[in-house]
Amino acid sequence: MKIGFVGLGHMGAPMALNLLKAGHTVAVFDLSASAMQTLAEAGAQKAASAKAAASGAECVITMLPAAAHVRSVLTAEDGVLAGIAKGVTIIDSSTIDPASVKEFAKLAAAQGNAFVDAPVSGGTGGAAAGTLTFMVGGSAEHYESVKPVLSGMGKNIVHCGETGTGQVAKICNNLVLGVTMAGVAEAMALGEALGIDPKVLGGIMNTSTGRCWSSDTYNPYPGVIETAPSSRGYTGGFGTDLMLKDLGLATDAAKGVHQPAYMGALAQQLYQAMSSHGDGKLDFSAIIKLYRGEKG
Amino acid sequence: MKIGFVGLGHMGAPMALNLLKAGHTVAVFDLSASAMQTLAEAGAQKAASAKAAASGAECVITMLPAAAHVRSVLTAEDGVLAGIAKGVTIIDSSTIDPASVKEFAKLAAAQGNAFVDAPVSGGTGGAAAGTLTFMVGGSAEHYESVKPVLSGMGKNIVHCGETGTGQVAKICNNLVLGVTMAGVAEAMALGEALGIDPKVLGGIMNTSTGRCWSSDTYNPYPGVIETAPSSRGYTGGFGTDLMLKDLGLATDAAKGVHQPAYMGALAQQLYQAMSSHGDGKLDFSAIIKLYRGEKG
Amino acid sequence: MKIGFVGLGHMGAPMALNLLKAGHTVAVFDLSASAMQTLAEAGAQKAASAKAAASGAECVITMLPAAAHVRSVLTAEDGVLAGIAKGVTIIDSSTIDPASVKEFAKLAAAQGNAFVDAPVSGGTGGAAAGTLTFMVGGSAEHYESVKPVLSGMGKNIVHCGETGTGQVAKICNNLVLGVTMAGVAEAMALGEALGIDPKVLGGIMNTSTGRCWSSDTYNPYPGVIETAPSSRGYTGGFGTDLMLKDLGLATDAAKGVHQPAYMGALAQQLYQAMSSHGDGKLDFSAIIKLYRGEKG
Amino acid sequence: MKIGFVGLGHMGAPMALNLLKAGHTVAVFDLSASAMQTLAEAGAQKAASAKAAASGAECVITMLPAAAHVRSVLTAEDGVLAGIAKGVTIIDSSTIDPASVKEFAKLAAAQGNAFVDAPVSGGTGGAAAGTLTFMVGGSAEHYESVKPVLSGMGKNIVHCGETGTGQVAKICNNLVLGVTMAGVAEAMALGEALGIDPKVLGGIMNTSTGRCWSSDTYNPYPGVIETAPSSRGYTGGFGTDLMLKDLGLATDAAKGVHQPAYMGALAQQLYQAMSSHGDGKLDFSAIIKLYRGEKG
Description:
CATH class of the largest domain in chain A: Alpha Beta
Mean pLDDT of chain A: 96
Protein name (chains A, B, C, D): 3-hydroxyisobutyrate dehydrogenase
Keywords (chains A, B, C, D): Branched-chain amino acid catabolism, NAD, Oxidoreductase
Radius of gyration of chain A: 20 Å
Distance between the termini of chain A: 52 Å
Oligomer: homotetramer
Number of helices of chain A: 14
Strand content of chain A: 5-15%
Shape of chain A: elongated
Largest sheet of chain A: 6 strands, parallel
Catalytic activity (chains A, B, C, D): 3-hydroxy-2-methylpropanoate + NAD(+) = 2-methyl-3-oxopropanoate + NADH + H(+)
Order of helices and strands of chain A: EHEHEHEHHEHEEHEHEHHHHHH
Family (chains A, B, C, D): Belongs to the HIBADH-related family.
Strand order of the largest sheet of chain A: 3-2-1-4-5-6
InterPro entries (chains A, B, C, D): 3-OH-isobutyrate_DH-rel_CS (IPR002204), 6-PGluconate_DH-like_C_sf (IPR008927), 6PGD_dom2 (IPR013328), 6PGDH_NADP-bd (IPR006115), HIBADH (IPR011548), HIBADH-like_NADP-bd (IPR029154), HIBADH-related (IPR015815), NAD(P)-bd_dom_sf (IPR036291)
């Protein structure tokens, strides 16, 4: 299949590589020449613009930092919508707000293109290994049509519902993630202050009703889970500033539908405090520092 | 073994029954004559006071609503400490604050008795089935000595560390539980408002980083988990007022050691709002009503 | 002076009227024909577009709901920047985010115009009476130049500092306002539940350290302050949805500079809960309903 | 008048001194011999116990750190209730929870004594100057009877309602105080980060709707109010740990009546974070450090 791919960052580059490995023809575009070069050496065609990457493609994939970038990549004079053929589907794997998805889907539909949201979970590790989960928003028909392409980059291709629901699934999941991590950090630090061995406490939680991914897989207390970022200085995981982006999307979406998001908004402020202390690049489980008196 | 058992409420009664089934001789005391009668019919001896229940016992177990009751049962003129023989261990399975545990342990030690905290998880269902988890605080020696007795009432007998750490484990776990449930409720209601099918959202969370007991076992959205209280009108689970008691213990303990408990304190207020609406007897997962506009 | 005025809503219309009364020549533009007609009857010139209103003006004033409207009114083909003469100052009295102010100031500067932010406080009452407070962001020179115009619409013309600081002053003040009102509502409802007469409690607060505008002028408990919206069914004051807009600007601005905004973010969720109950049009002091069990 | 006075701490000592200056005969008791000596040198009689201080007194005043101390001073074998004559009124000026007040009033009534709660505001400065405010809970008759005594120590003697309402007034006022200070600190730090001069911002707030005691009298930003603790290194004001005590009373009282206390509980955690950083002795306005990145 002939695929146009725009956005070769930490996630996009390995995703595009996997498409090449899966046997697709891939035309790539990114503002970074070195990112383009790396992909070209792996067999991709360098496109001069998003428009060029989209020209002649049977499918276009975008993987960008925020909605503003997606808007620009789609609607610029040399953007995707200027180059894409009628009937071709655009898959956006960026994490953006559901309202923007609907706006972009409308723009695409106006010229005969489908726009499917397919944000991912699994991080850079999953992107490299081709084991990402894709949360797909679009009609059942579009879901079926993009599934084969996404299968080249991920393991779990989940249909979430109509356009935008892929993003809804992503931000609601990450809202829970941000809240549970803050809660586990608070409880682990409290337990430590009250004199229980953190490993014992972690063990009890993980076999009881406090059990959660933030405790049994990613426990923020160093040494409780050997493979967690906390056991290697909070490096190499899911950065605090990325969690902040997702909590920002969640609380903004809640604002848009007049829903209170008490827990998410509070967790957001705590991660913001971390970021203001200069810890924005650490794994988000470093939030436990706010409770252990190291910072904050 | 000859056991004295004080406190025959929703938890204590089935626990004492299981001790009888395990072949122990049990002398029971409770202020409720009917609770006493039920146990007597199952083979227990009715004691006229906590002191009488403790007299001649090789082990005394207390299961009471709060620290004030434990204090009174221990120290009253006709209380446990007045009747118990030197060297006999007192096991308190009530959920109370760690500071009170230490105070009671001192009182007991002053007259040659050990006081072991062993709060439980598993609810009335686990109490009846004899599948409770006991979180035991005390020396390794005391842990070994109480294990055989507790095994008659539970499946998991976990040693948490020194005196008081059983309570620490319990309240830290329930702090996480109260926070994750509030977070999951917030996210499920937000997802619904943003147009995703709650069952789809629950399914994604439960296989992703939002995974937690509050989502995969006790999901607050009706119908997502058929066996959860939410699927039967929020009845028959873990009452909101009980969650409030445990969050109160957690935030009070945090106050005592000058630790902030941001997430727990906020969750506590949300459950308090539920309780103020008259929903204190509903399962705590009914907190989702605060977000779904039914109440609150 | 010849003034172009764009935006004739609840605030803009009475402000433009006051400029007419002050003897200025005013060319007005609004999408609402009836709003235009009302001003025309009072002596204003109807302009066919924002561009037309700006043409030939010695000063242009915009008063719009949000940054998106300001952007559009400035940059559209028939917008202000297309019609304004070089050297003329644009005064924006909308309440928008400081970052957008800086962006607009750059656009204006690029074609030789100054852009001064001058958001107001005082509400529709102050707009009608000409007693608004203007918080002006811009150089000392620009402040001096706009002061005479603003004096036609307000009583207090305060220089806050460089471009954007007018908005900073406005949103920081309203952050405090949103927080103090929530705090006063919480305390008044708590006092009532604990058995004190709310009027007595209000009286004590207002002569003690709890004293604040939200208590001594706008007390949320009905009857404590006879002239407050709470004493007339929470009508006719500062709408909850407007407070939500301002708290949204404050927490967004905090996000932008990586500052935690714990109290503001929590208050925002509480007002959001009100709005989700259908109370978004009530005065924001109706937040006390969340605490008094009437709703929420 | 012959007065018994128990509790000669930072507040009690200057209060008792003012009673002496007002011409009363005062028998004092405190566990600190040096505190007793200071008062004796000013003309007081040293009593050997609380009981002795109460013996023969026409009025007994207690000024103690917490409810547990009041309980002990009242009910101990050598306590006030053992020494006081029938019909004599006990005035408790400690800040304690309203529920304990009712319990103590019952104990006193059982032996024919009235117990009036009369907590104060005004701090050690007001205690020395005799300008305290007393918030009095009790019948109108009791209020009239204690007014002359209290007038010797304070300027404002306010009748709040029935027994316990003095404490209700105190903790509700301080709930607002703790919340507004946190809100002002948050807004001042945000304004600074966004580039406005804190003095300008403070000036605008203090003439606008953000106006409050925490801003116009006690502004947490150094230099905005020259006489505030923030302008002298956060020394000599109202200590953070005292604010924590009062917020603890407020949130506990809210728990007791099933009222949510969202804002108060969050503020409490923020002051707790300060305290955990070792700042518990600083004036509570030092909470702004949590926002300015100095600590926390």
